[in-house]
């Protein structure tokens, strides 16, 4: 029983860290009505920039993070201005294909500029695990979960309560109607992509510390895809609930099923969950019941 409780706690923390990256998917979907298939590559490129500034130029961590922040802001603005703005009013599938192309571009661009050697981001967080009753917790997971909760709360307030958030939702509903109502669609597109870049930076710092920094870090984006499908592509609460469910399922699978079958089920289980959800409720637990054939 204690083992199961420990797995559930670990899975919950991991799921909350998934939620942070999954928020990038939701953010772009809610503001542009398109799925950003390059969100994992955003995480990778942000982590590579920070790690490169530390390893190549010897910058302190804080300076490297600041440079990474500025890079992601400029990157988001440039992406919106030169890639996505010309697509306003075009079919959603065009934006989706652009994000897929962007993902492949970033996988080559990051290692080309900053090097392909695996490295890590050493955050000032102790490595020694914390034992709390039956629980065995890693400090980086507690920090990552805390960052996720704070950012999700702040973003939830912004999106639901602020005028800018309401405008972003209007842009997501219809680009043409928003422009007719006087909303600056380009500005809110830029805000959405910049915020997605900042989310990716936070995720890159946490996951770059846990699993290292190289092109494989982009797979985190693919790993959290079941989270957004499970919770709902347009739901902030959904990414939290979906993240926790996926994290707990992963942890329990690794603890109870993997030892019996020789391993591998941990990475497989979330996608089984995703397929089941798509079959019975394709819009997710908290998503809007809106189905569009593309």
Structure report:
The protein is built from 12 helices and 2 strands. It has a two-stranded antiparallel sheet. The chain has 294 residues and is an all-alpha fold. 74% of the residues lie in helices and 2% in strands. The model has no long low-confidence stretch (mean pLDDT 83). The relative contact order is 0.20.
- How many separate helices? 12
Order of the strands making up the biggest sheet: 1-2
Proportion of strand residues: under 5%
Query: What's the N-to-C terminus distance?
Result: 47 Å
As a whole number of angstroms, the C-alpha radius of gyration is: 19 Å
Low-pLDDT residue intervals, each spanning 5 or more residues:
none
Structural class: mainly alpha
Assembly type of the shown chains?
single chain
Q: Strand count, sense and closure of the main sheet? A: 2 strands, antiparallel
Mean pLDDT: 83
Residues in helix, %: over 70%
Number of strands: 2
Q: Order of helices and strands, N to C?
A: HHHHEEHHHHHHHH
Q: What would the principal axes of the Cα set say about the shape?
A: globular
Question: What is shown here, in short?
Answer:
The protein has 294 residues and is an all-alpha fold. The protein is 74% helix and 2% strand.
List keywords for this structure.
single chain; 294 residues; mainly alpha; two-stranded antiparallel ribbon; globular
List the helices and strands and how they pair.
Blueprint: H1 2-32, H2 39-57, H3 61-84, H4 92-114, E1 130-132, E2 135-137, H5 139-161, H6 163-173, H7 175-180, H8 185-211, H9 219-223, H10 225-231, H11 236-261, H12 265-280
Antiparallel strand pairs: 1-2
Helix pairs in contact: 1-5, 1-6, 1-8, 1-11, 2-3, 2-4, 2-8, 3-8, 5-6, 5-8, 6-8, 10-11, 10-12, 11-12
């Amino acid at each position: 029983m204690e083992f199961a409780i420990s797995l559930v706690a670990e899975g919950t923390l991991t799921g909350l860290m998934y939620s942070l990256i999954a928020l990038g998917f939701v953010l772009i979907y809610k503001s542009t009505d398109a799925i950003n298939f390059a969100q994992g590559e955003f995480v990778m490129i942000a982590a590579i920039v920070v790690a490169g500034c530390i390893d190549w130029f010897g910058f302190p961590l804080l300076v490297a993070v600041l440079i990474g922040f500025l890079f992601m802001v400029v990157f988001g603005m440039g992406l919106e201005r030169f890639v996505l703005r010309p697509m306003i009013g075009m079919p959603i599938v065009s934006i989706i294909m652009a994000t897929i192309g962007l993902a492949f571009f970033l996988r080559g661009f990051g290692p080309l500029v900053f090097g392909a050697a695996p490295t890590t981001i050493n955050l000032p967080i102790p490595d020694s695990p914390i034992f709390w009753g039956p629980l065995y917790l890693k400090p980086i997971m507690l920090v990552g979960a805390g960052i996720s909760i704070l950012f999700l709360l702040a973003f939830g307030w912004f999106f639901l309560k602020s005028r800018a958030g309401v405008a972003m939702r209007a842009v997501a509903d219809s680009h043409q109607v928003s422009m007719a109502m006087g909303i600056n669609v380009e500005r809110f597109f830029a805000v959405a992509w910049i915020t997605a870049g900042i989310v990716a930076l936070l995720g890159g710092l946490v996951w770059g510390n846990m699993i290292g920094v190289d092109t494989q870090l982009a797979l985190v984006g693919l790993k959290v895809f079941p989270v957004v499908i499970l919770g709902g592509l347009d739901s902030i609460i959904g990414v939290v609930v979906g993240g926790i469910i996926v994290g707990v399922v992963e942890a329990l699978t690794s603890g109870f099923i993997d030892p019996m079958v020789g391993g591998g089920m941990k990475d497989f289980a979330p996608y089984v969950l995703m397929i089941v959800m798509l079959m019975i409720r394709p819009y997710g637990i908290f998503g809007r019941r809106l189905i569009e054939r593309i």
